[in-house]
Amino acid sequence: MKIGGTHYRTIWPESDGAVGIIDQTRLPHAFETLKLSTLEDAAHAIRVMQVRGAPLIGVTAAYGLALALRADASDAGLESAAKTLAATRPTAVNLAWALNEMLTFLRPIAPAERAAAAFAKAAQLADEDVETCRRIGAHGKAIIEDIAKKKDGPVNVLTHCNAGWIACVDWGTALSPIYQAHDAGIPVHVWVDETRPRNQGAALTAFELGAHGVPHTVIADNAGGHLMQHGDVDLCIVGCDRLTAAGDAANKIGTYLKALAAKDNGVPFYFALPLSTIDWTLFDGVRDIPIEERDARELTHMTGRTDGGDIVTVQVTAPGSAGANPAFDVTPARLITGIITERGVSPASREGLAATYPEYARTAA
């Protein structure tokens, strides 16, 4: 995607051997890039959400492993680096998936050759993510196009958090169908949930939709149900951080409430995700998906730009009040209309996912 007329991916190899990223903690007020040069740099970037979004976390971990092998390519070094990266974010399964892909590939390779091989493999995973997201977008675009044929005016899509190109290597998952519909001339408008407490919708989704010229409106997190009641939402598309083999979906906190409102109002509710987001070992998402508890300061404080142009952080809660900050919730499969994948739209069920990915479902418990 383009920023100011320049094409960017969210992660790329630098000429000096480092890995470049966009610092997402600075958006939308400043567009800045960073260089990752060590394992510690990569782990820090994931942990503090300089990179975020399940697919991008996975690719960053892959590059982080490659950076680590420059310092220690021994068997012990390989396993230790993977353990360090795996501990950074517990909910997004793409992290574990990418590390497993890298470990399976690298373990048989001689230590002297591992670093170069790891960089090549990480680049391959990045390229594959771009193509996967493009294909997710093509399948999701067909859903938007079908709705557009049946109504006057734009198709109104509600989304939660950020699952656009900033959350992936390029294109995105939930936003890829929107970009492809917009580029094809299909009238589309996006309701952008602000997504408290980190405001990924207001900050990141609005930023990238605006950069691409897609009509959109930022709304308070609690406004979605009201809009659905009044017929102002045609469908919801959100991303996903972990999908069980039975179709339960973990996504940014607040997604479950939107799915309940959509069900009550007959609004289709889709999750868009790649194969790497599916956890074939889990079947009960509410019980078994680990939910990351983040620093309460994300809830009690907010960062923004003053009218004078300064970027400041202020406290928004009553002094002395405790804060609880679960980062994700789980939407049960019964509330999900379908799963938009790179292979097509799948029912949110064990049978539906097994039919879409038979070679992986056979290995599920």
UniProtKB/TrEMBL annotation:
Pathway: Amino-acid biosynthesis; L-methionine biosynthesis via salvage pathway; L-methionine from S-methyl-5-thio-alpha-D-ribose 1-phosphate: step 1/6. InterPro entries: IF-2B-related, IF-M1Pi, IF_2B-like_C, Initiation_fac_2B_a/b/d, M1Pi_N, NagB/RpiA_transferase-like. The active site is at residue 241. Its EC number is 5.3.1.23. GO terms for biological process: L-methionine salvage from methylthioadenosine. Keywords: Amino-acid biosynthesis, Initiation factor, Isomerase, Methionine biosynthesis, Protein biosynthesis. The record marks 161 as: Transition state stabilizer. One of its GO terms (molecular function) is translation initiation factor activity. Substrate binds at residues 52-54, 89, 200, 251-252. Belongs to the EIF-2B alpha/beta/delta subunits family. MtnA subfamily. HAMAP family: Salvage_MtnA. This is Methylthioribose-1-phosphate isomerase. It comes from Rhodomicrobium vannielii (strain ATCC 17100 / DSM 162 / LMG 4299 / NCIMB 10020 / ATH 3.1.1).
